[in-house]
Amino acid sequence: MVGISGRALSKIASSFMVITSDNQKTNLGLSLKFEAKALKVVDYSQKEGRHWEFSDKAVELFREYKEKFPDVFRMLDGTGDAMAKAAEVLAGDDPDGRVKEIKSWLKSKGVRDFEPVSLFCDQLTKDTVTEIEALADSFTKSKSSSAIKKAIVKGIPRQAVLKPAHAVYRLQNQHFALGDRVTMVQDSGGVPLSIKGVVIGLNAKTMDVVWDVPFMSGSTLGDRCSQYRGSTVEFNTCLNLSNPQFVTSTNPKAPPPVRNEVPFKPRFGPHPAVRPAPGQAAAAGFKPAPHSNQPVHIMTNPNRGGRGGYANGRGGPPPAAAQTRPETTDQDSSAPSPQPNGGHGPSVPGRGFPRGGRGGFVPGFQRGRGGFVPGFDRGRGAPRGGFRGRGRGSFAAPTPS
Fold first, then answer.
1. How far apart are CA 28 and CA 20, in angstroms?
2. Which of 27, 48, 212, 329 is the most exposed place for a label (fewest CB within 10 A)?
């Protein structure tokens, strides 16, 4: 439709920065989409899934821009994301003057007045809101507070009456759409009770309403409506008049209406998925780890051996110095040999060297971890009343008095 590539369209629709001769950066783009900030321009662009969509007004703006300044579009397909200089983009003797000319043309088209909004909201355009205000003014012009008369209503069941304090509990899961006529049913807050308005914007948990009459706490909703006419309210503070969902019969014996159990969660724009579509890479660049049949060891110590290993000496053969057993006397040879884990019993052949004792009681063997060996003095000092050494590894004989 425009006759340019997708890369060129993406550049000119967002921000296209050029540097002038005085090292000043100038944006020559249309600023219709903001990918990193997740913003769009109402009535010009929107994002559906992974792709951007542009309206007829945006396409017409692309065509006018290309016809007016074709040399700008010739540089959009260039490789690289570095900022180009004005002399490289615009032909002629005065590229800085051409930059000023493009800026003035974009301003005349209202590009700099575009209001970016979140992708996850939906709003009416400013021109539409102006027409709604004019229509509401024509309705309220002939009304006056003195013409309101009091009336007594009888025969209304209690379930058909909505107390303002109960609105936050009873008006759950109410659905709204752009252009719906609503009325305020909550008596607390900045909006007066029973005032009517029109929904002009839907957010994730709130909605923007332009009211029929101005009030003190009203706002312009970001310069989208007249002063003191707009406000952002929650869904359960208003009653939908265009799509009634809480209609109750005046017959006291009538069954209560069926409540809507489907929650109203308006979300617009792209929905980030946990898993990408088949054949497509994830938007965040995440790549799952390849599957492997080999087990992955986490937090393992390579210097620690298992049963029968040789890394830390707990289960392996004794050192070379320990393997050469010294000659023993008949009394030493009669002592039983150490068993695995400090226990008793003969060694099991074919299972490597026996493991060192772990605190078990081995009579006559002095290599256990805390085992009791009879007749062996560890040198912790003399009995009470005598001389006691300060060290833990020596023993001093008491001196005769």
1. 12
2. 329
